[in-house]
């Protein structure tokens, strides 16, 4: 029997919970805050608000992490890149948020990643010097936000022998050594989003996927417009000082096709590149970023990342990012695009460009046949001065529209917590909500624990890195059926137990949720095809348990 008082049960997202909570909302329950969008920003807003004591509902048109949040490079940046563009404030904010994620709130999902910048003929001595100065500044920020060097060691110059020792696949000819530095790496960006959303659910937030917002109507605005929709002027409640009435939201339950009307004291639009649909006054300049998936063997199986200067560009690098599962991601491009599509597709030119840049530093150049898969995401960049999208600022903004909808957009995955805090502050002030102070900088996400405690969890390290303290609960699902501990396909690490956990606790409603977001099997199409039966079987398993 499930113990409803246990932390796992309180944070569990299931099809039953979704149906019950959506019925409550559609039945007229008014929440303090309705969050639109279930990416990292929306999930962060839901957690921030629910942990301040507000009643919260989050509605997501598709699935948690359906949008940009699952297509990132999975880096928790210390802000090196912003230093290069002179934005010290943003760099410091990034370093501070990295410290929070890596040491306080999500130590199971974020780990230190060694990165090497190889000093090849394409890196003149002057450019190498500048890079060292930048790394030195980034390290000062690390110290400023008190991330110890035992977690992220300071940068240092490597000899040729040391460089080749760390990245055996590099070409020796013309190599003068390397620069070694450290940053944060997420085991999986989509798992971060799910962990944030489940932590919010444990505070009572209703997390409702497959609910698309179609329109927002502000009853207070309508009432206030002289001769407006009903021409009645301020409502009696407002004249009596009770504040504006609720915002009405038209939505669609895409599982049943049923329209519904949701009501909230305030609404936050966290829909990333789709933000202008609900807030037309917001101007974005989306840009597509592409990654390739390759076998780790193509880089000598090293756990060290590579930062490869792009020939002819200043301060732009291609990244080679080992994932610890026998795969490496190579990224990333920055291509301006007006097309905001659900599933952006990398183009041929981007793939060739990435292969060429990285091959330039390898002993054995990469071949198109090495590419196991590819993925692309759209950056929700705020329009601003700067010709290329690569030069646009990565800051975020919080904006209140005429319909009282508060939009939070821009920023980075790394800074989601800060974005959420700013947006909830604005919502609390706007609707005069009775909320406590922001607590999220000290609030561990589900599964989080100090590093020493994580190290002693009796479960495989791979599971601990994804599920933290919940890893034993994943293993437990295989107690009666040890076959669930086997990988779901040849050459893939993911087990059947993880898929069942996705159904029972992480709100996965179909095969796509399981293979493309709760796990990332879907990043390699051949693996995805091989794992389909296991995913279908996990969903059936769930039906048996709840039926
Ligand atoms: C290629 C690439 C690499 C990146 N790498 C990094 C990195 O390494 N580190 C880092 O810190 N940042 C990185 N970023 C930036 C980061 O990924 C984004 O800033 C962040 O994920 C944006 O999250 P979001 O929640 O604002 O948007 P999204 O994740 O896009 O979420 C918006 C959600 O809103 C939903 N939605 C839209 N319309 C509606 C509606 N009408 N009703 C209900 N729901 C709706 C969508 O389905 C979607 O799930 C990268 C970005 C890209 C593109």
Protein described:
The chain is an alpha+beta fold and 547 residues long. It has helices at residues 7-11, 15-26, 40-51, 80-84, 88-105, 125-144, 160-166, 189-202, 219-224, 236-239, 275-278, 348-359, 416-431, 451-455, 461-467, 471-476, 496-505, 511-518, 525-546; strands spanning 30-36, 56-60, 75-76, 110-118, 156-158, 178-186, 206-209, 211-218, 247-253, 258-269, 287-295, 305-309, 317-322, 327-331, 335-336, 373-379, 396-400, 406-410. The strands form 2 sheets. Strands 3, 4, 5, 6, 11, 12, 13, 14, 15 and 16 form a 10-stranded mixed sheet that branches. Strands 1, 2, 7, 8, 9, 10, 17 and 18 form an 8-stranded mixed sheet that branches. α3 runs parallel beside α8, α3 packs across α13 and α17 crosses α18 (511-518). The longest helix is centred in the last third of the chain and has 22 residues, at 525-546. The radius of gyration is 24 Å and the shape is globular. The two termini are 14 Å apart. Residues 221-242 have low confidence and may be disordered. Flavin-adenine dinucleotide binds next to α3, β2, β8 and β16.
In brief:
The chain has 547 residues and is α+β, with helices and mostly antiparallel strands. The chain has 19 helices and 18 strands. Mean pLDDT is 91; it is low at 221-242.
Radius of gyration: 24 Å
Mean model confidence by pLDDT: 91
Low-confidence stretches: 221-242
Number of strands: 18
Shape: globular
- Into which percent range does the helicity of residues fall? 25-40%
End-to-end separation? 14 Å
Q: Can you list the ligands bound to this structure?
A: flavin-adenine dinucleotide
Structural class: alpha+beta
Main sheet summary: 10 strands, mixed
Number of helices: 19
Q: In what range is the share of β-strand residues? A: 15-25%
